[in-house]
Amino acid sequence: MVRTKRWLAMLLAASLSYAGAVHGAQSALVGTEQVAAAQGVVSADAQAVAERARVLELLDRPEVAAGLVERGLSAEQARERVAALTDAEVAQLAHTLDTAPAGADGVIGVIVFIFVLLLVTDILGLTKVYPFTRSVR
Amino acid sequence: MRRGVVARLAALGAALLLVGCALPPQTRELTDAPPTGVPVRTELASVPFFPQTAYHCGPAALATALGAAGFTAQPDELAPQVYLPSRQGSLQVEMLAGARRQGALAVRLPPTLRAVLEELAGGHPVVVLQNLGLSFAPGWHYAVVVGHDLEAGTLLLRSGTVERQVLSLATFENTWARGGHWAFVALPPGHLPVSATENEVAAATVALERSVAPAAARRAYDAALARWPGNLTLAIGAGNSRHAAGDLAGAAEVFEAASALHDSAPAWINLAAVRLEQGQAKAAEGAARRAVARAAGDAAWQAIADETLAKVLAAQPQPTSVRRRTR
Hints:
The structure holds two protein chains of two kinds. Chain A is built from seven helices and no strands. Chain A has helices spanning 2-24, 32-38, 48-60, 62-70, 75-83, 87-99, 108-123. The N and C termini of chain A lie far apart (104 Å). Chain B is of the alpha+beta class. Chain B has two domains: 3-187, Cathepsin B, Chain A (Alpha-Beta Complex), CATH 3.90.70; 202-315, Alpha Horseshoe (Serine Threonine Protein Phosphatase 5, Tetratricopeptide repeat), CATH 1.25.40. In chain B, 55% of the residues lie in helices and 14% in strands. Chain B has 15 helices and nine strands. The termini of chain B are far apart. Chains A and B meet through helix 1, helix 2, helix 5, helix 6 and helix 7 of A and helix 1, helix 4, helix 5, strand 8 and helix 7 of B.
């Protein structure tokens, strides 16, 4: 009886320690993006991970979400869009949005000048703004 | 005085005309010396057409390229993924991400007309960014090149509301150059672009891994690795996507080969991790020790290599402790 108990205890202990080993026998793999950055396949940006966290945190703010909805985009859609970008792309995007010129400002004279210039260059085949013009070539 | 002004205007006009008559460099090259290995004309007639609505050239061009690659998506569905209402347009980086979200490998092309023609010859329509205005008054536009005719010196595009736009090579090159010669192809995972560089394909595949199921990522990595067997990033991706799909034996095999070929710390680390999960303690320890040796002094991998070895050692069978606990 004592012998059986002892056997049972040993079996239980062994299986417990085995379960513990299986549970603990996991080690993180290095992500492909991390290797790509180290290999110079994508531009390495130490801030990229933090940049992503910052962007996602911004999307959690109610005033940001409201501003997005006003512009025809839900916070959820924005989050999914950020999720589809690589770390390097998120960093690039943050940079693009900061530096891209916002809105159109200009005086009528400039607009007229550009309109005429574009019409001329369209005809020369340098640009293609007006569908009714045909290149001279 | 008056005459002087007229003369100057005439000179300006002549200068403009001269600029207009000079063929842009790549067009001149193609015209002077037609490239070998590229057919004289192509037309991918089966590429679908989605006429764009106001400012939605991005979603329309994307739907066109995706449709040709076998992914059905309407511009309306793509707009919430790539369109920025505040900017009335789509960012290039989001065009690539939008294609990936539908499951397509989106690869940037080299900035040459020749690359565009090679993709057409390979049956791949090409999404291009044109600046239809001028550099200081941009009119950004996405279109899809679906054919060319070197004899006539023209390209065929699905563009805006025009299903079959015939555009002279010279005009296209001018508008394309002002868009930074930006172009990409969207392909089903497992297919490769004809012209893209090893680096662009690797970057595109790594980015795809984020958006698609492990099986699709594996197909993309395998195809790219078959073409560039010496690329470490692709090998890691081929192993990681197998691991994510639950194929431990396959992952181990890939990491085993990559470790032998590159003797690189991340390859050893991942091999150790997979061997550990497989319950192969000895093999895991061997790989982890190689990882630690290889990562010594390398800030990028040293910490994670040490951690991997620690985990591998902690998981080693320890009969003494079992006996102790049973007492």
